[in-house]
Design a protein that fits this description.
GO cellular component, one term: nucleus
Subcellular location: Nucleus
Mean pLDDT: 75
Number of domains: 4
Radius of gyration: 39 Å
Main location: nucleus
Shape: elongated
InterPro entries: B3_DNA-bd (IPR003340), DNA-bd_pseudobarrel_sf (IPR015300), Euk_RPA1_DBD_C (IPR047192), NA-bd_OB-fold (IPR012340), Rep_factor-A_C (IPR013955), RFA1B/D_OB_1st (IPR003871)
CATH superfamily of the largest domain: Nucleic acid-binding proteins
CATH architecture of the largest domain: Beta Barrel
Keywords: DNA-binding, Metal-binding, Nucleus, Transcription, Transcription regulation, Zinc, Zinc-finger
Number of helices: 15
Largest sheet: 7 strands, mixed
Strand order of the largest sheet: 1-6-7-3-4-5-2
CATH class of the largest domain: Mainly Beta
Length: 675
């Protein structure tokens, strides 16, 4: 003791009632001897110098005791006071001072109150933990990773906490601390430190993505005992790296989180996206583990993408060795990749780790076999329609497209003659990879993802017959381009159609998705339209007449762009009309050879060229509307029913003059003969 000081000491053993109610009872003799009077409030100072203001109360029914009440809870929680905790309270007082101002007194906590720190026993191995045994387990572990999980149900609630720990045998296990116990354990737990843990509960490890392969996980209770310790036998680093070859050979998302180390070879810019009206970003990178196999694709989302950019800017190095700890495997679009979890994953760049040093030595031995430069992938730029259709993509006629011998991308101008109603206009797609599903008895199977599911996503697969002056072909319109052009998704149209169909058609519609009697009218807006198509040709055997699949990736209906391309490529356009009277309706697709005017196209808004007499005659005899223009030299007549007929190109050349002369007369005279 310091000179001129007098110490008054009391030792206390925390009872079960005091631990549960967060109070501390003291003998009244200690209070009278230490304080002279019973104060209303005292200062409790721990050995770290943190002061807690505690109220002192008493009960008439217990005249020999007083107790610490309000203010004692945070002290008790911070120091993990439990049933059986031993503490020593000492009141220090200068002999020259008999009373402190405002009845405030000093109490000093002399020793660690947690009795687990005093335990002298053999600790249990983590690998032996089991629900079968009723043993009171006590383990010594090191915290490898600690993260918080916010509460999504109540914004004001405390977060829960999760940990991955390891013992001296190298066995890892998952800890879980509920939000109600967060404040009890958060102040004393620290990543990288060693702790002794006892009196805990256990449960089966059944999470979707499990950070450890242990069959159990530990759940903290309110009276779980935790105490800091030292142990040099527990490893400082612990990784279980998985090779790229093993990851790429997998076809299912792994249940367990993995570790991966690789050289950063490719990175993208931050790519913005919006999900549920919330804007965010992600980044794509490629990692090389120097095994000689393919590079592994990795996607970093939100905070992890921002963290990587910060780490790369902070490291003034020529190569970047990235360690991803507790990453998850994700099968996306037919390829296995890795990505971060929401909170568990740890990202390290050129970290001071033994595994990074060994990886760098391997990189030096390989020398020039592996490039250390980082290739930057730019964001996919969505060009404007005028750039895409007029300058960036080569133009080809349908005949030239069908003669192409390799996979290519072209722009062409054509008129949609009809929709193939013998094929489904939508298909049941996998919600993960958009591939078609195989219908089984009570579920669906995706061969690409190798998964079974009971739900599907309706997506467009519309086969349309498109013609130009050279030939006709079948174009396939999938969800992206079809939904943008129609302004409706396949799911929305299917929902509307289901509401209109009779009950006896519902089962057939759900099972097939096609048939003349339930083809949606919304798709008819395609027929007769002259459009610009950006398409990709791949040579699969579609049928014996067309040995290639022509898939449309983008559609343009802007008349200015169509007219610009027609003038540049000397495309011959025609006017498609739908003639009708009060007595009958006769949709006609009339395809004219000549280009009206030298610098403008018939019917294009803004044209100053005088239309031909034929067009005036047509528009003056009940024409419903001018649909569009087309370069196809072919005649197609469709009646009000389902009947349609097309003439060959050679026959169309001789029939066109007759059509031009007969259409006005036949429109006004229902008794006229067939054309």
């Amino acid at each position: 003791m310091l000179p001129n000081r007098e110490a008054i000491v009391v030792d206390k053993l925390i009872s079960k009632y005091q631990a549960a109610e967060y109070i501390l009872t003291l003998p009244i003799s200690f209070v009278q001897r230490a304080f002279g009077i019973k104060p209303d409030q005292v200062d409790v100072v721990d050995d770290a110098g943190v002061c807690y203001k505690v109220h002192v109360r008493s009960k008439p029914s217990r005249p020999r005791e007083c107790y610490f009440a309000k203010g004692w809870r945070p002290f008790s929680q911070h120091h993990m006071l439990r049933t059986g905790s031993a503490i020593r309270l000492m009141h220090l007082q200068f002999s020259a001072v008999t009373q402190l101002l405002d009845s405030y007194f000093l109490l000093v906590l002399l020793r660690d109150p947690n009795p687990i720190h005093q335990m002298d026993q053999k600790f249990d191995s983590v690998k032996d933990l089991s629900l079968i045994s009723k043993k009171n387990w006590c383990i010594k572990v090191k915290i490898l990773r600690m993260w918080k999980v916010p509460s999504y149900e109540k914004s004001y609630s405390q977060p829960s906490m999760e940990l991955v720990v390891i013992d001296k045998d190298g066995t890892q296990i998952h800890f879980f601390i509920r939000s109600v116990h967060y404040r009890l354990f958060e102040p004393i737990l620290e990543e990288g430190k060693v702790f002794v843990v006892g009196n805990f509960a256990m449960d089966s490890n059944t999470q979707k993505y499990r950070p450890t392969k242990h069959s159990m996980r530990i759940i903290f209770k309110r009276d779980t005992l935790v105490s800091g310790a030292d142990d040099m036998d527990i490893p400082i680093e612990s990784f279980d790296f998985v090779a790229t070859k093993e990851i790429l050979s997998s076809v299912k998302d792994d249940l367990y989180l993995i570790d991966f180390v690789g050289l950063l070879s490719t990175k993208s810019e931050l790519i913005p996206f919006e999900y549920r009206n919330r804007k965010s970003h992600y980044m794509k990178i490629e990692l090389d583990d120097l095994s000689g196999s393919e590079k592994l694709s990795c996607t970093l989302w939100e905070n992890y993408a921002s963290e990587l950019i910060t780490l790369l800017d902070a490291n003034k190095a020529t190569e970047f060795i990235i360690v991803l700890q507790f990453a998850k495997m994700k099968f996306y679009n037919g390829v296995m990749t890795i990505t971060n979890t929401n909170y568990t994953t740890r990202l390290m760049v050129n970290a001071d780790l033994e595994v990074v040093k060994k990886f760098r030595q391997k990189l030096i031995r390989l020398g020039s076999k592996h490039s250390t430069s980082v290739e930057v992938i730019g964001r996919v730029v969505r060009h404007s329609p005028s750039e895409d259709f007029l300058s960036l993509t080569p133009y080809a006629t349908i005949h030239q497209i069908k003669e192409t011998l390799e996979k290519s991308t072209f722009v062409t101008c054509g008129t949609v003659i009809d929709i193939d109603r013998d094929h489904a206009w939508w298909y049941k797609a996998c919600r993960q990879c958009t591939q078609g599903l195989e219908a089984l008895t009570n579920q669906f199977y995706c061969a690409k993802c190798d998964v079974y599911s009971t739900i599907f996503a309706p997506r467009f697969c519309i086969q349309v017959c498109v013609g130009d002056e050279s030939d006709t072909a079948t174009f396939v319109l999938f969800e992206n381009c079809a939904s943008k052009f129609l302004g409706l998704t396949a799911a929305e149209i299917r929902t509307r159609l289901l509401a209109r169909l009779p009950t006896y058609w519902l089962l057939l519609f759900n099972n097939q998705g096609y048939g003349r009697d339930h083809f949606p009218n919304e798709l008819n807006t395609l027929i007769g339209r002259t459009l610009l198509f950006k398409l990709t040709v791949r040579h699969d055997s579609l049928n014996k007449f067309q040995q290639c699949v022509i898939t449309v990736s983008r559609i343009c209906s802007d008349p200015d762009i169509i007219s610009s391309l027609a003038l540049e490529k000397n495309i011959k356009l025609v006017c498609v009309v739908e003639c009708s009277t009060e007595d009958f309706q006769l949709p006609l697709l009339i395809q004219i050879n000549d280009l009206v005017g030298s610098e403008s196209i018939l019917g294009v808004p803004g044209s100053t060229t005088t239309p031909s007499p034929n067009s005036d005659a047509v528009s003056g005899h009940g024409a419903a509307h001018v649909v569009t223009h087309t370069p196809v030299k072919r005649v197609c007549i469709r009646s009000g029913g389902d009947f349609s007929s097309r003439a060959t190109p050679s026959a169309s050349k001789s029939l066109l003059p007759a059509f031009e002369s007969c259409v006005p007369g036949n429109v006004t005279n229902p008794d006229a003969g067939d054309i």
